[in-house]
Amino acid sequence: xxxxxxxxxxxxxxxxxxxxxxxxxxxxxxxxxxxxxxxxxxxxxxxxxxxxxxxxxxxxxxxxxxxxxxxxxxxxxxxxxxxxxxxxxxxxxxxxxxxxxxxxxxxxxxxxxxxxxxxxxxxxxxxxxxxxxxxxxxxxxxxxxxxxxxxxxxxxxxxxxxxxxxxxxxxxxxxxxxxxxxxxxxxxxxxxxxxxxxxxxxxxxxxxxxxxxxxxxxxxxxxxxxxxxxxxxxxxxxxxxxxxxxxxxxxxxxxxxxxxxxxxxxxxxxxxxxxxxxxxxxxxxxxxxxxxxxxxxxxxxxxxxxxxxxxxxxxxxxxxxxxxxxxxxxxxxxxxxxxxxxxxxxxxxxxxxxxxxxxxxxxxxxxxxxxxxxxxxxxxxxxxxxxxxxxxxxxxxxxxxxxxxxxxxxxx
Length: 412
Known about the structure:
The protein is an alpha/beta fold. It is about 35% helix and about 25% strand.
């Protein structure tokens, strides 16, 4: 079989970029990942998300067997039956239920499992120490006369490859240079959220069904969303068996929560809000929910200040497919969407699709531009379809749906 040497440059070490790197590494294709953060734990990355069949199939295709088994082992509770979301009243009594379609009956969100984003990211980093470079802030790219592409970084270094992949999230600098007309829409909603360890006291106040899913309470002009991550086994014990030497930071059950507020209700700019230390953000949150039931306030009061964060809720505007070059995109870098169970899963699906296309170039002799064009055609189809689906939901469902994909990447 023909074999073409390829060097793939991936900018962005989130779930999609790392899944792509694993798939290419598994196939023997040269790949390097450049991440602007100094370490995987450099900033709050979001916590849980709902991984469905799209994400699971991508991991199975791209990861070595032991790592795929580890990714399954570190999942938290599954969604039971077709349950997706519970609406509760101010006393946390169940008021309504929304449902996922069963796997195979929908191209988008399906029944799956809760999973901790940072724990999965550590799984995806395993075995890639020699090809993932932290502290590499991308500034620009230059397409070379010989058909290669040069990625330039803020520290003065650069790297040359055959293809440059934008996996650098909603604020993608590659997208800004490559597709300057691609717009981001600010929804006006700000997510003020955090992570609270699940104590015995909290367990007594929460609905038992919330151990299977997640929920929302709507009080006055604001909403609070919350969900549990309950591990079936200690992730470190699973790692000791399947990938010795790998250690996880998150091993305790927790509640992931967020208060959704319109930006104009906060009487401060986004810059001021983002610069606010965790302790002050916590005080702001408690002031916003001063008249809420004690159980909901308890979630905020018992949260460690350094576990609070702010998110500006934005999404991409769908665009027509562009002319294929040696620069391409995946995940939030191109089809950022209101998080309702599709953002992370779609990024993982992108990673698998792109890996398959590049493997076809390297192993089967598929023409390079044809393979990338085919990837982009399919990715644009399902990626923007998922985006449109997330935008077509009624307002209250959209609010609740944002929480299904609660593990989105901050400041990307």
